[in-house]
């Protein structure tokens, strides 16, 4: 449905500029029809610039953007103006018109429709987002979540081919954010809307996206399903960005075969992705794939350590376990009602295939 090829954008090229910033660096990806693609990355990585180029608010220096096979940007030049692209945008914090009612906000992009058709479309869209009967209210009379629903309704009312979401839940509290993103995800899926959502929140990107595109320094470094992106990240820097990561040394055996495994302090573990490694390597293990057992059970493989710290989140928690054999601490994710306490000795085993990477070199 939507594709970008070799998209590049540099800020600060004007005469007299002290510094130029490469915001987009040869960005190349596609979003299938009906797919929800999340674009994840830290602040300043280029994800919002990418959204603005697709929406028509920025012009790239080079590259192309097509929607349903129609070029809207060709060779760095806008071929279709923003208002004619068939793209709906939900900006951060909604950006509703405070002097207009909810119905007027939603109908803002429908001015070409006959008044009766516009009224029906607004009512239909408000019902879709769960705000039937709210049409006469003003934005200040709504909660934060309701305002974001109005912003979404305004974006989908013209029935765009693509909807862009720019950090749409960042201003909401955690409970409301989780509930609203679940509702929005279900609505967009039901409508079959092709969607791109940018976020710096790793959990949000993994929970919302059919696929996740991860950006770093203006480049897309990995695109894939959430599970694959989390368990098989392109490099260790991305692994650490996506969540807690346990990294230890190992030796890859059987590289290039479907029986590749790695020998490490935890024993011999199956390898899901070798990343071109042969021989010595770094091994990525996620904390939730480490199991805690009885230290007295010598029949089990693994390592013995001592619980140094615990963090309680309610539904689950994290333990920091010092393992003398590794010369450091290992992070283990456990259920919230786990029985282990600081000072307990425990046995750690790994119960899932792992990914390996070329050994990280210390900075000079």
From TrEMBL:
Q: Which UniProt keywords apply?
A: ATP-binding, Nucleotide-binding, Transport
* Any one GO MF annotation of this record: ATP binding
Keyword Transport listed? The answer is yes
Report domain ABC transporter positions: 2-242
Q: Which Gene3D superfamilies match?
A: P-loop containing nucleotide triphosphate hydrolases
Residue ranges spanning the membrane: these are none
UniProt keyword annotation of ATP-binding present = yes
The UniProt entry, under InterPro entries, shows: AAA+_ATPase, ABC_SmlMolc_Importer, ABC_transporter-like_ATP-bd, ABC_transporter-like_CS, Mo/tungstate-bd_C_term_dom, P-loop_NTPase, Transp-assoc_OB_typ2
Q: Which residues form a coiled coil?
A: none
Protein name in the entry: ABC transporter ATP-binding protein
This protein's species is Microbacterium kribbense
């Amino acid at each position: 449905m939507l594709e970008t090829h070799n998209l590049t954008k540099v800020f600060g090229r004007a005469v007299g500029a002290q510094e130029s910033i490469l915001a987009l660096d040869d960005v190349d990806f596609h979003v299938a029809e009906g797919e929800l693609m999340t674009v994840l990355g830290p602040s300043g990585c280029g994800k919002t610039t990418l959204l603005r180029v697709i929406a028509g608010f920025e012009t790239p220096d080079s590259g192309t953007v097509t929607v349903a096979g129609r070029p809207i940007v060709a060779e760095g030049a806008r071929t279709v103006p923003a208002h004619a692209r068939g793209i709906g945008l939900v900006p951060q914090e909604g950006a509703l018109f405070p002097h207009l009612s909810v119905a007027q906000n939603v109908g803002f992009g429908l001015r070409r429709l006959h008044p009766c058709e516009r009224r029906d479309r607004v009512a239909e869209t408000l019902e879709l987002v769960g705000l039937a009967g709210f049409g006469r209210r003003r934005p200040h009379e709504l909660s934060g979540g309701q305002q974001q629903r109005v912003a979404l309704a305004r974006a989908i009312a013209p029935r765009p081919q693509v909807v862009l979401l720019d950090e749409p839940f960042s201003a909401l509290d955690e409970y409301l954010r989780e509930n609203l993103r679940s509702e929005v995800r279900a609505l967009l899926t039901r409508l079959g809307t092709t969607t791109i959502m940018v976020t710096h929140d790793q959990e949000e990107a993994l929970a919302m996206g059919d696929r996740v595109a991860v950006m770093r320094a203006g480049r897309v470094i990995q695109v894939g399903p959430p599970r694959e992106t989390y368990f098989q990240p392109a490099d260790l820097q991305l692994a650490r960005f996506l969540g807690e990561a346990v990294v230890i040394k190992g030796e890859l055996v059987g590289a290039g075969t479907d029986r590749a495994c790695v020998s490490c302090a935890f024993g011999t573990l199956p390898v899901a992705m070798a990343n071109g490694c042969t021989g010595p390597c770094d091994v990525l293990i996620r904390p939730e794939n480490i199991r805690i057992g009885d230290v007295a059970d010598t029949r089990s493989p693994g390592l013995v350590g001592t619980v140094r710290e615990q963090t309680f989140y309610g539904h689950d928690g994290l333990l920091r376990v010092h393992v003398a054999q590794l010369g450091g601490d290992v992070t283990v994710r456990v259920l919230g009602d786990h029985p282990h306490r600081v000072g307990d000795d425990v046995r750690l085993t790994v119960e899932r295939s792992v990914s390996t990477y070329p050994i990280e070199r210390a900075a000079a």
